Amino acid sequence: MGIGTMPRMPPSHPRPGVIDLSDVGPVGDGSRDDTAAFRAAFEAAGKLGRCTVVIPPGVYAIAGEAPVPIPSHVSVRAEGAVFRFPESLGDGARRVMFAGRDVVDFQWHGGEFVGHCFDHRRPGNTWAPNANSRGIVVETSPGGVTDQLTFSEIRGNRVGGAVLHVSGALQGEDKVHTHATRILVDRCDFDDCGKFMWDYGLLWQILVWPEEYAPADVAMAQRHFPDGYIRGPASLRDGDDRVALDNAKAGIRVSASDHNDECVCFLGGQLPRNVVRGKKYAVVEAGDSWVRIAERVGGKPIRFDGSSGPGVLCMNRLHHAYYHLYAPAGAGPGKGGLDLVGCRGVRVAGCSLKALGDTMHIQRCRDVAFTGNQIAGSRMGAFFLAEHCENATVTGNTIDGTNGSRIMSVERSCTNVTIVGNTFRDGGRGSWINQPKRLILEGNVFVNNTTKGERDPWRGRKGLETGDYERWPEMYFTRWQPEGTYGPCIIRGNIFATGPECAQAIVFHAGGHDLLLESNVFEGPGRTIRVEPGCEPPAMRGNVGIERVV
Description:
Elements: E1 18-20, E2 29-33, H1 35-48, E3 51-54, E4 58-61, E5 68-69, E6 74-77, E7 81-84, E8 94-101, E9 104-109, E10 112-114, E11 132-139, E12 147-152, E13 155-157, E14 164-167, E15 169-171, E16 175-178, E17 180-186, E18 189-191, H2 202-208, H3 215-224, E19 230-231, E20 235-236, E21 243-244, H4 247-250, E22 263-267, E23 281-286, E24 290-294, E25 313-315, H5 318-322, E26 338-341, E27 343-349, E28 352-354, E29 360-363, E30 366-371, E31 374-377, E32 383-385, E33 390-395, E34 398-400, E35 408-410, E36 415-420, E37 423-425, E38 431-434, E39 437-442, E40 445-447, E41 475-478, E42 489-492, E43 495-497, E44 506-508, E45 515-518, E46 521-523, E47 528-531, E48 539-541, E49 548-549
Parallel strand pairs: 1-3, 2-4, 3-6, 4-7, 5-8, 6-9, 7-10, 8-11, 9-12, 10-13, 11-14, 12-17, 13-18, 14-26, 17-27, 18-28, 26-29, 27-30, 28-31, 30-33, 31-34, 32-35, 33-36, 34-37, 35-38, 36-39, 37-40, 38-41, 39-42, 40-43, 41-44, 42-45, 43-46, 44-47, 45-48, 47-49
Antiparallel strand pairs: 15-16, 19-25, 20-21, 21-24, 22-23, 22-25, 23-24
């Protein structure tokens, strides 16, 4: 440590109840690491207790290799302060500026966290796609106490992870051993924060249709697409029903089901006229030097109409290749610029959030109020109430998906959820409601949230079912357990202004019961309600603009 970065001891006669960072000698030039000064100040505050740490305006470099410990019973005032992560972060880097465990009675007001989150549409990236940086992390030990945390008027810019992460002690895949309690996030502004995500199917699409992208984009996809998914070369000859390839090396097996990971697709050179590039096919027979493919498991092998050209390749593990690569390989923890997991008594109000992945993430939380916020853009999920939340009220928010993935996700058995008086617009794949129990959607406006169907190589997304651009419903209800059910659900007084790519207005998949669809208004081309087998037909009354129910 250089002399310029050596912290001074706090003065022997400080202002009562105040620890001033300037008293411990930070460099404050935005380039030399000030971790030691912050550590000295926060450790002094922890010993003093029930005090305020004042961080004067300035630019402070914090490496984040060893987080500054967060004490209990402390208020941080950081108006005008800027906290900079390192200029460059390589593959798999993990950085956290401030962290604490079992923190009680803690407030942080003001300040801005600045990073360089990777963005494939922005030239000159200095961080790897999977570099992960987080500003403030508070965790809870089993049986410990994390309580009464307030974060207000904090800003973030291109932080490659959560600016704020608070978690209870989790248990298994769906339970919380010990909640973090009474968490307030107020008037924070996070711009392009949260860990970077590619989006579902983007790398796959670039590799399957490289002619639609710039050479630099193709090289990027090749660099970040995992080895072992693409096999070949492959040859498909006119009149034959066998795909010739070295299958002793590729190891492609007969498909046991129509699941994407059991199927293959083709890319590269010209294909026979009856084989579609990017479309999935089942493997019905396999030998050491060939496979036979069909439209479905157990189907008749396809006899090729025309021969393939040079450079044809075969891809397997399609579910992983398409869906699991939404984030870079080796991506770090957390989702969203705001990441709250296992908390009880949560209030998020008056915030502006924008992300290069999921915008925000509330999971396994109870007693949640998400009120008066603006989500101003998302690469992936915009509003994300994740698995196993209870007693959540979502009201008065404006949520702009900017062609990201789902505009709203209410995932996996969320219970007692009220979503009232919000605007959801310009999402990519509609709203996904996954096996809720007691859900109210009332007085919301949904505007054109199926933009991933646009026939544009960046805004639109092709799919495995057809090898062509896909279309989504404006809203769809599903279950995640094979025999799971969802309901009661009330969908009342909403406006659905569907866009040109909308497949249906609402789809109810199997498992639904006690469903009420009342006094809603449907505009645009998507005015069909689809009810799948195994779902009780919804009660419907007073709706305007529905063209048909199928």
